Amino acid sequence: MTSDTANLTETQSIGPDASLLLVDDDGPFLRRLARAMEARGFAVDIAETVAEGLAKARHHPPKYAVVDMRLQDGNGLDVIEAIRERRDDTRIIVLTGYGNIATAVTAVKLGAIDYLAKPADADEVFAALTRKPGERAEVPENPMSADRVRWEHIQRVYEMCERNVSETARRLNMHRRTLQRILAKRAPR
What we know:
Elements (H helix, E strand, L loop, with lengths): L2 H12 L4 E5 L3 H13 L3 E5 L2 H10 L4 E5 L1 E2 L2 E2 L1 H10 L4 E6 L4 H10 L1 E6 L4 H9 L15 H15 L4 H8 L3 H9 L5
Parallel strand pairs: 1-2, 1-3, 3-6, 6-7
Antiparallel strand pairs: 4-5
């Protein structure tokens, strides 16, 4: 298949409205992903903060969105809610380095169609954005490690406690500072 044929196929899978909003506070990653998505046929707009993402989502709600969960000025879920208020057909992907099941469930309830852990490459993002309804993502080859299972449990309890560190530490019978250190780290593989 030639490069022109591949581009035509990618453009056809995107549809006539190719507007894509990327919201991430990692500037170099954001610009790299924007270039890669533009090369695949999207009309890309970027935001590096929740405030900027909210403004862009309200002004011109996109057909596609990739939103980082944790941003310096807040939570990317607020951007998802703003997009959903204006447009219900947007295909939204949540992208985060702090992946856990509890936040994935919350993101899906708010309208995200997929949840990818960083570092996700442009091919993974494109595949998630253009996946047809009912089409399933590939099952991971390796099961979660014991560290990852522990991390998921801590995150689930943390979300149940409405992100209250003291209450979460009490329920897990863990010292508050130990829990804060665990929560500050990226998710184990």
